[in-house]
Design brief:
- It is a single chain.
- The chain is of the alpha/beta class.
- It has 12 helices and 11 strands.
- The chain has a single domain, classed as Inosine-uridine Nucleoside N-ribohydrolase, Chain A.
- The strands form 2 sheets. The protein has a 9-stranded mixed β-sheet with strand order 3-2-1-4-5-6-11-9-10, sandwiched between helices.
- Strand 1, helix 1 and strand 2 form a beta-alpha-beta unit.
- The structure holds beta-D-ribofuranose and calcium ion.
- The site of beta-D-ribofuranose has 15 residues, from helix 1 and helix 6.
Length: about 300
Amino acid sequence: MAKRIIIDCDPGIDDAFLLAMAVASEELEILGVTTTYGNVGLSHTTNNALRVLDWLGSSVPVHAGVDRAILSSRVDAAAYHGETGLEAPEIGQPRRGAEAENAIHYLVRTLAGSPDKITLVASGPLTNLAIALRLEPSIADKIEQIIFMGGSTDYGNDSPAAEFNLLCDPHAAQIVLDSGIPTVMFGLNVTHQVIATPREVERMRALGNRAGRVFADMAEFFAKVYRERYGFAGSALHDPCTVAWLLRPELFETRAMRVDVETNSGLSFGRTVHDIWGLSGKPANAEVAIDANPDGFFDLLLTLLNRLN
Ligand code: BDR
Ligand code: CA
C-alpha cells in the first residue's frame, strides 16, 4: 500500500522537484498539499504549487496556509528562485484555485479524521505545522513522521549560522521538534552534497521528455546563485532529499540525536544545535541526515522524471 503523505511547501524551484518526484512515485499517495510563505510570499507559493501540480497532471487539493512567521520578521529567497518563486514559463498558469479551507484547518481536520497515521513532508518554514499542532495537539498521535528540510549540522546559508527555512521561523521549528512526533531532518550539511552539476542537468535533458527539459532549465536557473555565492558546481537540490529518503532510505545515513533551535536573537538566531554526545541529558528528537549518496539520488530523480510526460 502506498504511504499516505501531506506536503507542506513554498515552491520554489527545489520544492517543485520534490512535488514532481512525489507525483511520479507509485509508493507515495499525496493526500494534499499545503503552502506556506517562504521563498516568496504566500500568494506566489500557492500559485506555484497549483501551477506545478496542474502541469504534472495531478489534481491533489492545495490549501494555502499562513503568510508570516509566528514571531520573526519575514525573509525571502527571491534571489535564488526568482521574483515569483518559479520562473518557468513552460509551466504556465493553473487552471484552478486553492481550496477555500485554510491549510491549518485542513491539517487538523484530515489528521483528526484519519484512521491511520499520515506522514508529513515539509520543505519550507514550519509555521503551518506548528500552528496546527498548537490548535489541536491531539493530531500529533496521527502523524507518523515529519520529514523536513531545514537546519544544518554545520554552517548556514541565509546567515552565517542558520539555514533559510528555520531562520524564517525558528520558534515554529522548535515547536515541531518538541512535539514528540518522530522527525527526520535534512539540513544543509547533507543537501549541499546533492548538487545538480552540468552533467546531471544534461542527463535530465537527455531524457527527451517535457519534464526532463523543464526541470533541467529550472536547475540551471537555480544554479546561478549557487555558482556566484557559494562557488558550487550547480544548484543544491535540498527539498527533494526528503522524498528521496522516503522512497530509498538507503541513499542517506542518519543519526538519532537531540536537535534544538536557537530562538533568541543574536548571531546564531535560527541555528540548529545538535547534541550528538547526549550532553544535554535530553532524549533524541530527530533522525538527522548526515551523509548522502548523490549518484543514487540522481538515478532515482531521473527514473521518476522519466515517468512523467
Ligand atoms: C531551503 O530554502 C529554500 O530556498 C529552499 O526551497 C529550501 O527549502 C534551503 O535552505
Ligand atoms: Ca523550500
